[in-house]
């Protein structure tokens, strides 16, 4: 781009030696000739052909110089961004953050300018360099979808991303394509996209939940539940994924069907199977905390919340730190919504979760609970004890291989991908 001035000067010199038909179309040349003859006629003159040609060449040169000035102005507006582009070609290695930041700013500028062709051209240039970055594909598709009558172009953007560049291990762009196809009335295509994702990623909770809700929107609540049942019964699906699906099923019964009792039953009946899932307990506790209550029902409501915490503490094999985190939610509940006796329960739970260790390593969780109720000076937290002796609570901890799966959170694409940090340094991960 920076060579345009040199190219123009060389063209300008060459233009003086070339015949007029090579410089402009015949209609433009005829217009210039008419203008020159009209100017001469105003003074009652008739210029010889050589002078006419000279004036025509001057007009052609002026027209090209105007184009040059426009080019110069547009180039100067973009030069700040162009000068920062260090890798204009495709490569499998990650870009530096400052390169991505520059492309974002460049796209912001071009979109603000509002020239459709220029914006499309810049996106295509950007994707040569940034083809492995989801955010650019998402941005391109969103911008294109805002243009009138561009559904096919939007589809092509999603298809290029999903079939060529973005790996299926990052399914967000494929799910977005499914939503787009559903919007366009191609529901079967949307279903097939979900099925294709799950063939490769059977434990992708976001894809399963998305598919279930596609079925709910198009075929009703029972169809959504069938999706959850099929995935929970599948041997290919991990037990901790199934735990997350049970919580989604319960929330579907609660939020969509409006049946709190059925939703609660889903949690209660499955607690024995998914006791080691952190997500299961979090969602169950969240469910109970969000139930409406009043002065008459508050005591019953408090017992239900307490029951979730007690079940989690005594049945799950989650790490002590995770149990303390969940217990802290209960402590906050007791502070904010507890009754007259709430602080007694608060201090009891506080001792059990954050207390000192028994001298003996063979006390069970029930021993600790009973001792705390008796205010024994040696009563301590069985969770704290578990930090020093893994079998001290009577419920062995999960092994190091299983623990990450048991304690992970199941987040959606939009929860994981926030606005980029404008001050980030180093290489930018693709995910």
Description:
With 431 residues, this protein is an all-alpha fold. Among the domains are: 4-80, no CATH class; 84-166 and 421-431, no CATH class; 292-398, no CATH class. Helix 4 (97-113) runs antiparallel to helix 5, helix 6 packs antiparallel against helix 7 and helix 15 packs antiparallel against helix 16. It is built from 21 helices and no strands. Residues 357-363, 374-380 and 385-393 have low confidence and may be disordered. The protein is elongated. The protein has helices spanning 4-15, 26-41, 49-82, 97-113, 116-130, 134-145, 151-165, 172-183, 187-200, 205-219, 221-233, 239-257, 260-270, 278-289, 298-315, 320-337, 342-354, 365-373, 382-388, 403-407, 413-416.
- Helices and strands: which structural class? mainly alpha
Query: The biggest beta sheet, please?
Result: none
Radius of gyration, in angstroms, nearest whole number:
35 Å
User: Beta-strand level of the residues, as a percent range?
Assistant: under 5%
Poorly predicted regions are: 357-363, 374-380, 385-393
| Average pLDDT rating | 87
Topology, number of strands: 0
H-E order: HHHHHHHHHHHHHHHHHHHHH
Q: Helical element count?
A: 21
Span between termini: 32 Å
Shape: elongated
**Helix share, percent:** 55-70%
